[in-house]
Amino acid sequence: MNLEIFYNRLPEKLKHILSQLFKLGKEMNIKLYLVGGPVRDLILNREVLDLDLVVNRDLEVLLERLREEFSFKIEPTRFLTAKVYFDDFILDIAETRKEYYPLPGALPEVSPGTLKSDAYRRDFTINALYLEITTNGFSKLIDYVGGVKDLQKKIIRVLKRNSFYEDPTRIIRAVRYEQRFGFKMETGTLSLLKKAVKENVFSTVTPQRLGAEFIRTLREKNVFNPLRRLDELCGFDFLNVSIKLTSEKISSFKRWDSYKYKRDVLCPEIIPLMILLSDLELLELDRISQILELTRAQRSLLKKYVRLDKEKILSLLSKKLSVSKIYDRLNNLDFEIVVCLHLLAKGQARRNLDLYLKKLVGLRLEVTGEDVKNLGIAQGPQIGHLLERLKKARLEGKVKTREDEIRYIKKLGDVDRVSGN
Ligand code: CTP
Description:
By secondary structure, the protein is of the alpha+beta class. It has helices spanning 3-8, 12-27, 37-43, 59-70, 115-120, 147-153, 163-166, 169-181, 187-198, 207-218, 224-233, 247-257, 270-276, 282-291, 296-307, 310-316, 323-330, 335-344, 347-361, 369-374, 381-395, 402-419; strands spanning 32-35, 51-55, 73-76, 81-86, 89-95, 97-100, 109-112, 129-134, 137-143, 155-156, 184-185. A hairpin with a 2-residue loop joins strand 8 (129-134) and strand 9 (137-143).
């Protein structure tokens, strides 16, 4: 393995921080290793954006020096671990440790350990590789568990027979890695996973911990394959609600995976969530919103989508319509809801939704709410209404430039004042 190539593949900023850390560590005789996801991703030639590091001792002292010398924001997380923030990057840094699980599913008891014990406490062989850091590079790749061979053979393999019992969230993780990389679960690992599911191992963990791992699955670039595989291996009962993968949902997920407006959706997991939960009862929706610790905005979108008469809207859109008619039917709906309808729609309804989204996504008003206020229109809901009507005029091509927009707003403002609206 060419360690120089791995190093050169890291973003410049990350290389810089690694060399600073190395210098500090060396002064204190502390060894530093890159571990887990980033090592795996370097070997697989995938992009690395965040770093997981371990040090062989004295993490506290190293963090103190980091704080003094670079004034990085440092946040201790659990025992012997911390997060370091710099620019857009997050660095997870930990001291090598061993873990003991007092009960299946319980959080582990952690104590300092050797690098080898640190490797053996991990979930899968492909996540238990280390690159030792040196001046401007890596000095060696350390593999206690056959992780490199498994990466080459494209295999997901647990390190211990009771791995899924110790931490049932690893069932969801195994599926995520298998599907993300197009790997296979090693036969023994797959049998252990199935046995753990059969013995209801999920009941030993809080649904919240499982939910957090599940949400990470929904943030994957492709969600259909991991969801299909979860459905096949364990279903979704671990989320404490009854979720079915209907054929309608399957076709929406497939479309979402290569969806052209994906980048315009701010929160990547919200659309798969809306698709998956679209047919739940409101009570169940409340329950799962708590389990997944969703934000208020996410909960509100989900509720609106569940309540929406989707069939009715799609049937209203199922004939050829002018842009302005389409706008009238859709403009009171949130962008994410329109996206879900678009993923669901077929035939003419799909074409109408596409037209609307194409125009809407490319549509940025030149004037802002502040501009409207400066035109003498009193603050309040009227500003929002005027901006909505302006958008519609833009969609219809009635206004094109900033001057057109200002003229249009003035005209509307005058009319509204006269009519007392
Ligand atoms: N880990 C583990 N068991 C878990 C969670 C994490 O052994 N239940 C270990 C793995 O070695 C993993 C590392 O902790 O590589 C960091 O965890 P995480 O950030 O969740 O894993 P990544 O592989 O970095 O995740 P991803 O690529 O999905 O971002």
